[in-house]
Amino acid sequence: MTFSSTSKKTQWRLGQVLPVGLGLVAVLTIATAVISFVSARSIAETESEVNRTNVIKSELNELEKVLVDAETGQRGFLYTGRESFLAPYERSLERYDEIMDDLRFQLQGTPEQLSNLEELQDRIDAKYEELAQTIDLKQQGREEQVREIVLSELGKEIMDDIREQLDRMEEIENNFLAERTERAQQARDLGQVLMIGSSVVVVITIGSILLFVRSDVVQPIERVASDITASSAQIASAVVEEERIANEQAAAVRETTVTVEQLGRSSLKTAEQAAASANSANEVLSLAKQGDRVVEATLEGMVQVKAKVEDMARQSLQLSDQTARIGRISNVVSELAAQTNMLALNAAVEAVRAGDRGKGFGVVASEIRQLADRSRSSADQINQLVDDINTAIQATLHSSTEGKQTVENGMKSARSTAETFDRVAKSVQQVVDNSQQIAATVDQQNLAIQQIVTAMNDINQGASQTASSLTQTKTGAQQLNQAAQILTSLV
C-alpha cells in the first residue's frame, strides 16, 4: 500500500513535472532556434548592407579614377596633339555612365545620398564639358583659346568641388558602415547571450527532471537522457560553430576595411602622380620657351657677326682708296724731284755762263723754291695718308676682335641651347616615369579590389555555414521534442 501510494505520488509528480519540464525544454529549444535564425538573418542583412556600403565606396573611388584618366587623356592630347592620347578620355566616358547607373541603384533608399549624387553628376558633367571644349579647340588649332581655358583654372576648381563632394559622400557611407558594423556586432552578442542563457536553462531543467525520475523508469529515462545529452551536445556544437563563423566574418570585415583604406591611399598616390606629371609637363613647356629665347639670341649674335664682317669690308675698301692716293702723290713727288734736279743743274750752268747777268736765273730759283714747296706739301699729304692708313688698320683689327668675341658668344649661346634641350629630355623622361608609376598604382588598386571581392565571398560563405548550423539546431530541437513525447508515454 505504501509502495502503491509512493508510486502514485511519484507518477503524479512525474505527470506534473515531465510535461512542464519537457515543454519548457521544447520552448527554450524552439526559442533558441528562432533567436539563432533571427540573429543570423539580422547579421546577414547587416553584412549585406556593409557589402553595399563598401561597393558604393569602391564606385566613388572608381569614379574619381575615371575623372583622373579623362583629365590625363585630355592633357596628353593638348600637349602632344596626338589623337591616340584621347583613348583614356573616351574610355572614361563609357565607364562614367556605368558607374553612375550602378550608384543610383545602390543608393536607393538613401535620399540624402541620391541628392548628393545628382549634385555630383552636375559637377562631373561640367568637368566633361570643359575637357570636351579644350579638345575641340585643340583639334581646330585654336591654341590661344585652349591656353586661356587651361590658365583660368576652371577645370581645377571643378575638380576640387568634385573631390569635396566625393569626400562628403564617402564620409556619409563611412558613418553608415560604422553604424551597421556596430549593429551587426550587437546582434551577434545578443544572440550569443540568449543562446548561452537558453542552453544553461535547458541543462538546469533537464538536470531537475533527472533528479525527479532517478528512482523510477531508470532505463527509459537513461535512453531519453542519452538522447537529450546528444541533442544538447549538438546544440552546443552548433553554437560554437556559429561563434567561430561570426569571428571569421568579423575578421573578413576587418580585412575589407584595411583593403579599402589601402585603396584610398593608392587613389591618393595616383592623384599625386598625376599632379607630378602635370608639373613636369609645365616644366617642359617652360624649358622649350627658354630654348626658343636662346636660339633667338644665337641668331642675333650671328647677325652681329655679319655686320662686323661688312664693316671690315668697308674699312678694307677705304684702305685700298687711300693706298691709291699715296701712289699718285708719290708719282708727283718723283716728278717734282726730277724737275728740281734738272732746274738746279741748269741754274748752275747758266750762273757760270752769265756772270753778272745771272739775275735771269732768279726766275729759275723761284721755280725751284715752288717745286720744293710742292714737294713738302706732297710729303705732308703722304704722312697724313699714312696716318689714315694706320687708323683704318687699327679699326680693322678692332672689328676683327669684336667679330671674334661675337662668334664666341654665339658658341656659348649654342652650348646653352644644347644644355636647355638636354634638360627638356630629362623632364620628358620624368613624365614617362611618372606615367609608369601611375600604371603601377592602378595595378595595386585592381589587386585591392580583388581582395575586397575575396573577403566578401568569405563573408557570404560564413553566412551559408551559419544557415547550416541553424538547420542542425532545428534538428536537435526536433529530437528534444521526440524525447519529450517518449517521457509522456512513459508517464
Work out the helix count.
7
β content, as a range?
under 5%
* H and E order: HHHHHHH
Shape, please?
rod-shaped
Query: How far apart are the termini?
Result: 20 Å
Average of the residue pLDDT scores: 75
Which regions have little confidence, pLDDT < 50, spanning 5+ residues?
1-10
Rg from Cα? 55 Å
Describe the structure.
With 491 residues, this protein is mainly α. The protein has a domain at 10-278 and 460-490. 95% of the residues lie in helices and 0% in strands. The protein is built from seven helices and no strands. The chain has helices at 2-80, 87-106, 111-139, 143-151, 154-213, 218-354, 361-490. Helix 1 (2-80) packs antiparallel against helix 7 (361-490). The protein is rod-shaped. Mean pLDDT is 75; it is low at 1-10.
Per-chain topology:
Layout: H1 2-80, H2 87-106, H3 111-139, H4 143-151, H5 154-213, H6 218-354, H7 361-490
Helix pairs in contact: 1-2, 1-3, 1-5, 1-6, 1-7, 3-4, 3-5, 5-6, 6-7
